[in-house]
Amino acid sequence: MMVQPSAKLQSFWNHPAGPKTIHFWAPTFKWAISLANVADFVKPPDMVSYPQQLAVVATGVIWSRYSMAITPKNWNLLSVNVCLAGTGLYQLSRKIRHGSMAKPAKAAEPKE
After folding, report:
1. What's the domain count of the chain?
2. What is the annotated localization of this protein (predicted)?
3. Which of 14, 41, 82, 105 is the most exposed place for a label (fewest CB within 10 A)?
């Protein structure tokens, strides 16, 4: 006797953005970038790269909007990109706060 999968599981499996498509797997693997960014929260702020984090934020914002403009709606794509934008903004805020709290360099003392 073969067990039939539930209707919800079948619906998920056969969804146009389900696990049988690239529309599922691309955002799923993109979670690794978000997790790497979260792991970098423990790094010193001076190690954070402005260009990298700006790219992460831009990617998150652009693709979040795109995920809601396409049919079918891709909620996995939306969630990963909202997370990307959020972690990127947090990293940028750490870098900016670190830069604004940095001690000003001492002026060179005049030679006599």
Report:
1. 1
2. Mitochondrion inner membrane
3. 105
